[in-house]
Predict the 3D structure of the following.
Amino acid sequence: MRINSYALTVSCLVALISASASAAPYSIPPEKQNIKKVYYGTATSFEKPGKVDYVSVVKATPEYEEVKKEKIEPGTGKYWILLSQASDRAVRAISKVGHDSGYDFIAAQAYLGSLEPGIPSEDITPLVLDQVKGEAKEKPKVESKGKMK
């Protein structure tokens, strides 16, 4: 009976050590860091990485939908203002998902896999799209004359 309890204790310790080793933080070397592809967190140390399709998130924003619906010409002031607002909304949604869900590093979809060695990550695009859609419903739209829609 003592041998079985000893074996059980040893196997539990081995499992605990293995679990601790697998939770070791990831890091991206400075020469491979690309801040344009990082939306949340720091590349020097992270444990739970996520990846996101940024273009899909921007296209899901109310600002981008307004550009398409009203056929706003690319290159005009209104176009760039709305695209900037869409981008800001996308980054806010990504940050909120990272903060709320425990992802401590979120990057562009292909970035982490393109590193050598690649860093495994989960696609969190659906979570971010849900956040963008929920955020759009919560905030009333303000017309240019200050009237609420």
Residues 77-101 form the longest helix (25 residues).
